[in-house]
Amino acid sequence: MDGEQDRLLPIANVGRMMKQTLPPTAKISKEAKQTMQECATEFISFVTGEASDKCQKENRKTVNGDDICWALSSLGFDDYAEAIVSSDVSMISLSLTRAHKDVNSTGLARNL
Prior knowledge:
By secondary structure, this protein is an all-alpha fold. The protein is built from five helices and no strands.
């Protein structure tokens, strides 16, 4: 049992994600958290395995974000792949905005 628990996502994290989606008054049983924990872990393993297979065929050792998006799309989860790409673009934009504010607040690179 310990070996199986080691490969599962932390149940506290799974429960936290479930609570964020449900109304504040909703209760979540331990069994529901465990079931979601197993399903989420299996889904991640499934997608990662597909991405890993692609990398092996291309003689690469490292799976990257593009490989995960490719795997999601090839497995029929196009909406998830698009959400990841949109999220990445938003995070990059946010990072650039913060970096720009940091540069301006320090007075560096005002002439750029």
